[in-house]
Amino acid sequence: MIVSAVNVLTLDGPSGVGKGTVGVSMAKKLSYNYLDSGALYRTLAVAAERWDVDLNDKKGLKKLANNLDISFQAESASTIKPFLDGEDITRELMLENTASKASVLALYSEVRTALTARQRLFAISPGLIADGRDMGTVVFPDAILKFFLTASVETRAKRRYKQLLLRGDNVSLPAIWRQLEERDKRDSERNISPLVPAEDAIELDTTYMSAGEVVDALMDVVMVRGIF
Ligand code: C5P
After folding, report:
1. Most exposed of 131, 154, 181, 218 (fewest Cβ within 10 Å)?
2. Looking at ligand 1, which atom is closest to the CA of residue 134?
């Protein structure tokens, strides 16, 4: 299926694996656009809370997803700020609680269809790095290069914990660890667009790698394939 007219590189994997850091860095190196698809699911969770739409109300969530007034603004080379109805929602979006709600509404096909259409709009010139769970399998099946990152749950929980601490949040490692495992289970076991590597994805275990090492490894593949 052809869904994109430009080069799309997909970066899928579980929570806390470092897709965001790696994706933004690669997009910068390649001067490509960057899509954080999880941010769309998280924004929908924030919007549902704002507009009092229940997480079981599939119809209400679908309507909300189709009318979501979301935009992203690059604040610096590595920071992209998300806005909902013109309001900066960076802090709310980062909360693990928001991510948990996002993984509940991500179970519904109505929501996924609405958000898939919006995600495809990001595939514009000169190219796109798309990060998520189903970028290579469902949203951009014709992507030119697909990566699937993994890391042990301990490493991922610690990475997420550090990230939240740096932001000044009052979080506990055991709580983050538990929420991460619950979310992984929901994302991997759902019927629609589960978290699985695409058949043609290149898998990389990043447990013992720094973000810089991961970027270098993936950029090597990009160069070897002659994509850039
Ligand atoms: O990537 P992030 O942690 O921000 O994603 C939050 C949640 O949104 C995930 O746990 C997952 O349930 C959902 N999601 C999804 N498909 C994507 C991206 C995120 O189902 N492509």
Report:
1. 154
2. 21
